[in-house]
Amino acid sequence: MEELIGRITAALNIDAGLAHNAVGAVLGFLQKEGPTGEISQLIAGLPGAQEAIDAAAAGSGGGGGLMGALGGLFGGAGGLMGLAAQLQGMGLGMDQIQTLAEEFFAAAREKLGEEAVGRITAQIPGLDRFV
User: Fold this and answer.
1) Which residue, 20, 29, 49, 108, has most beta carbons within 10 Å?
2) What's the pLDDT at 79?
3) Is residue 74 helix, strand or coil?
């Protein structure tokens, strides 16, 4: 997990605490929306991942503004719009969110392989546009 946090911190030029929360939010989203087997394997391969998920969930507050309103149109606070609203609520811009997704899934490919990441992106509508 620390390697992933370092990777995100450097790529987004943010502090480690924000990177930790952002990764926790992404993992929490995947845990809820993705295929159980692949996500469980990814979480198990990242020591501290469940704690990051729990911390991000505790501090989420549901998102607001335009992204929160759009999230409401697409199934409440769920889906990719809900995740984007949560990440924007942390202070990340859309360019940073795109970079976060690219770096996160590059690391996931290293842990799980291309085929497993393909199953994850296939199960979550629209995710393939970010990875």
Assistant:
1) 108
2) 87
3) coil
